[in-house]
Design brief:
InterPro entries: Uricase. The protein is about 25% helix and about 35% strand. The chain is of the alpha+beta class and about 280 residues long. Strands 1, 2, 3, 4, 5, 6, 7, 8 and 11 form a 9-stranded antiparallel sheet that branches. Bound molecules: uric acid (URC). The site of uric acid has 7 residues, from helix 5.
Length: about 280
């Protein structure tokens, strides 16, 4: 046979599920609710090759069934965190179906924060998104990663970029005072599953943000390295962390033709192209 199916996986993406949790039941207007919401991606690997190569669907757990599984288990599981719910889902697929060898579940949380002190009203924000990725694999421990994406951070000084490589194509001047703006994506791996996911997430987020502002940044690369170390120092349960920090350039606008000085005050923000900087820190 001239061709081989080198890799195959399938599942359902963007299954949007929300759950009202009612820790204390009471009258409708006073009962205190929690609202958790996520978009879930499911990817299954295993003995599905005949569906691709022979048109034999017998082994296929339909992507529609994958979708239904999310809602059924959202009912059965406490859905305390995206990490714990992701683990329930991933382990369900591997333990229920003999021919599924690996289930990857990725969750993006839509955060709802309580509106004033109302027991049943919330405000939402789509920017900073907590994430989780859980991989259950037959014969191996389940791997839980947690993270965040879309976390916008900026500082308006205490950042420069100088001394970088000189050659014929370099035009960027050295600077010792610039805007440092980025949209942080980070994900960290837990050593085992007996982790307080809420406390660990909070400690890592706080440590990364505190480190972002506690030094003069020589480059995005240096700050990424410092933030990664701070995250691991803040959470014994995390073994490694990957950060991605696009450089959201704010370029000094040339006001001279308009008869004005620009004393590091007026910038043009550009989306593209952007600097792309990533790194993984381990113990
Ligand atoms: O912090 C930075 N790192 C770079 O690698 C780089 N390259 C660039 O043009 N500006 C910056 N800034």
């Amino acid at each position: 046979m001239p061709h081989q199916l080198a890799h195959h996986a399938y599942g359902k993406h963007r299954v949007r599920v929300s759950k009202i949790k009612r820790p204390r039941r009471g009258a409708a207007s006073t009962e205190r609710h929690e609202l958790i919401e996520a978009a879930v991606d499911i990817e299954l690997e295993g003995g599905f090759a005949p569906a691709y190569t022979d048109g034999d669907n017998a082994s296929i757990v339909a992507t529609d069934t994958c979708k239904n599984t999310v809602y059924a288990l959202a009912k059965d599981d406490p859905f305390d965190t995206i990490e714990s719910f992701g683990r329930t889902l991933a382990e369900h697929f591997v333990s229920t179906y003999d021919h599924i060898t690996r289930a990857g579940v990725t969750l993006h949380q839509h955060s709802w924060a309580r509106l004033l002190d109302c027991p049943h009203a919330f405000t939402g924000s789509d920017a900073e998104t907590p994430t989780a990725r859980v991989v259950a694999q037959r014969g191996a421990p389940t791997r839980v990663e947690a993270g965040v994406t879309g976390l916008m951070i900026a500082k308006t000084t205490e950042s420069g970029f100088s001394g970088f490589h000189r050659d014929a194509f370099r035009t960027l001047p050295d600077t010792d005072d610039r805007i440092f703006a980025t949209e942080l994506t980070a994900s960290w791996v837990y050593a085992d599953q007996e982790v307080d996911f809420v406390a660990s997430r909070s400690a890592i987020r706080k440590a990364m943000l505190a480190r972002f502002i506690d030094h003069y940044s020589e480059s995005v690369q240096q700050t990424l390295w410092l933030m990664g170390q701070a995250a691991l120092d803040a959470c014994d349960a995390a073994t490694s962390i990957t950060l991605t920090m696009p450089n959201k350039h704010h370029l000094l606008f040339n006001l001279a033709p308009l008869g004005r000085e620009n004393d590091n005050e007026v910038f043009v923000s550009t989306d593209e192209p952007f600097g792309w900087i990533t790194g993984t820190v381990t113990r």
